[in-house]
Design goal:
extended, about 60% helix
């Protein structure tokens, strides 16, 4: 008999939310971005960074904030 698993498949890929979908979910959850986050995202859009560069920019911002504590 074949063993079945109720969890996700090991090779399943993640799902990436678009900006509108993310905004809608956060609005329902009552979560809002800080002024610095909004400014950073506007700057990223203005500079038209690649998705990899966008991710690196956000990670760098949070790593810098962690060091400032």
């Amino acid at each position: 008999m074949k063993k079945t698993s109720k969890g996700p498949k090991p090779d399943a890929t993640g799902y990436v939310l678009g900006q509108r979908t993310f905004a809608a979910i956060t609005a329902v959850e009552g979560i809002s971005m800080s002024a610095s986050s909004r400014k950073r995202l506007a700057d990223i859009k203005k500079r038209k960074l690649s998705p990899d560069d966008q991710r690196s920019e956000v990670i760098r911002a949070y790593q810098d904030a962690k060091l400032r504590r």
